[in-house]
Amino acid sequence: MSSKLRIFLLTLFITFFTVTRAYALEQPWVNDLRKLFLANATTIYELNIRTFNANDKNGNGIIEFDKDEESGNFINAIDRLDELKNANINTIHVQPITPVGKTKALGTAGSLYAAAGFDSINPQLKSSKSSLSIEEQARKFIDEAHKRNIRVILDLPACGSYDLYLQQPELFVKDKNGQPVVPADWTDVRLLNAGTEEKINKDVYNLYKGFVDMALELGTDGIRADVAPLKPAKFWQELIEYSRKRDPQFMWLAETSDSWVTPLSSYGVYTPYNKLLEAGFDGYYGSWFNLKNWKTADQLYKYVKFNKELFSKYEDKKSVIGSFATHDEMSPILVNGDKYSEMIAWLSATLPLNSYFLDGFQTGDKYIYFWANKKAPKTYTDDDYYFVHRGKIDIFNFSRKPGGNNYDLLKEFLISVKFKQVIQPMITNGKFTPLKTTNPNVFAYAISHDKKTVLVFGNLNFSDISECKIKVPKFNDNLMTIPIKLKSIPVFKNNRFNAKFEPGEIMVLLVEGFSI
Q1: Tens digit of pLDDT for each residue in 403-420?
Q2: Could you tell me the sign of the dihedral formed by the alpha carbons of 445, 36, 49, 121, in that order?
Q3: Which terminus in the chain has less CB density within 10 A, N or C?
Q4: Is the distance from CB of 279 to CB of 234 less than 8 angstroms?
């Protein structure tokens, strides 16, 4: 089916839904992020301001300021907001905007997550072409996002840079030799001492409170807490309650997973995901990044069930993001090819979760930088090598704007995100039902609500063709069935769909007047 026909069909069945909303853009912005997130209604786009709209004129992948090239900043980032709006992105997750460390650094610009301070803004993100202060530039970017009905989440780094340690060593955890602790293998940061459940460290708490104040004053709508398990639940509880007194809709997302079981340092605390949710976080990353390792449909079904049962344990609603491909994950193209990215896009559109995409995902960026880990002719830190993580978006250097040239994937991305917007009432209120198949590699599920059903079939085998029969209870040929994502039409016979899947193929159908 051609993309033009699919877009036409998508437009056609919009009339079957009530998806109207009046945007009074002249009215003051009112944060509604928690409400949307807890209804699985956010489509989140993760971006790094430093690269988001970088101008690499000679195309060598690195920003060279002495050649009149410009790295990403708050002002030129505004130019891409219409692109996100037109792609139906309604929330952006902005990677850290705090100052970065330059001592014992990684990369020639310094890691975004090596925070040298928590209550000020990284001067690297200021445009020299504007007379506004950096705070005014940041506020303007956020205001412009709001004008386009895009909410803004700020990233709160988990650790402090070595520079910050030299300035305030009392804020950090020390090992048995009195040296600051390096968590995991993050050699450019040191572990902050947030205290314990019995007694939180008020000095570190006040450091983070300063960040919350800054985020609220800039007009942001929520915070993503980097490696949230590194701090006690009580620490987060007090901070979240503090923010909610000023903005009840201020949303908190914890970077944590039910797959994480090993503390990052024997010297620090480790708070598991369930305790973080109890502390007041609205949601967490979950373990959707494990999709690349799943071989059977049961693994997908069990994880949906796990999250539903987990969230039912809390008095307040909770949710999860589709953490299939974050900045910590290898590019999906490198993992399982184009089909894997397509599968991620359509699972994000049809599963009960908040969609989440990394800048460059939609055009198939492999995040391969030819100058990676080579000696740099110029550096702005004490590291004179272009340090990068292979296959992951660059957060260490002044590098190119993310993006690839996979326009077929872009079409799939745009259609899938629009489709989620259209069926949002089904995602929010519908029933998720796994369907029986004759092939363990093939998943099949239905989302039903208000006499409408979305059917999703997919092949987790990315190497071989898979054939199977799929039972859809009470389905019949007379129902109005709209193909949304199909390469070949499955045949319905003897109360079953007979389908043949290419490696990694996913199929999506919309059925009117039918519920499971």
Answers
A1: 999 999 999 999 999 999
A2: negative
A3: N
A4: yes
Round to the nearest angstrom and report the end-to-end CA distance of the chain: 27
Both structure tokens of 14: 């919009």
Contact 60, 387 (CB under 8 A): no
Bridge partners, residue 231, by sequence: none
Range 214-236 burial, b when 16+ CB lie within 10 A, else e: bbbebbbbbbbbbbbbbbbbbbb
3-state secondary structure of 58: coil
pLDDT in tens, 101-116: 999 999 999 999 999 9
Unique residue bearing structure tokens 């990052």? 264
Q: What's the sign of the alpha-carbon dihedral 105, 110, 115, 119?
A: positive
Give this prediction's pTM.
Answer: 0.94
HSE-up of residue 189 (Cα within 13 Å, Cβ side): 24
Is-contact 211 176, C-beta < 8 A? no
Write the single-letter amino acid at 287: S
Side-chain-side CA neighbours of residue 74 (13 Å)? 28
Q: Helix (H) and strand (E) counts for the chain?
A: 15, 19
- Report the run of H or E that residue 297 belongs to, with start and end: helix 297-311
**Tokens standing for residue 113:** 């997550």
pLDDT band per the 50, 70, 90 thresholds, residue 381: very high
Backbone CA torsion sign across 403, 405, 409, 414: positive
Q: Give the strand pairing for 506-512 and 480-485.
A: antiparallel
DSSP E strands, 333-441 = 355-358, 431-434, 436-437
The Cα 339–Cα 333 span in angstroms is: 8
Question: Do 433 and 390 touch, CB atoms closer than 8 A?
Answer: no
Mean pLDDT of the chain, nearest integer = 94
pLDDT above 60: residue 515 = yes
Q: β-pairing, 319-320 with 283-284?
A: parallel
Q: Which residues pair with 190 in a beta bridge?
A: 160
Q: Is the pLDDT of residue 9 over 70?
A: no
Closest to 111 (Cα-Cα) out of 390, 477, 396: 396
Q: Is the sign of the CA dihedral 347, 360, 294, 319 positive or negative?
A: negative
151-156 vs 222-225, strand pairing mode: parallel
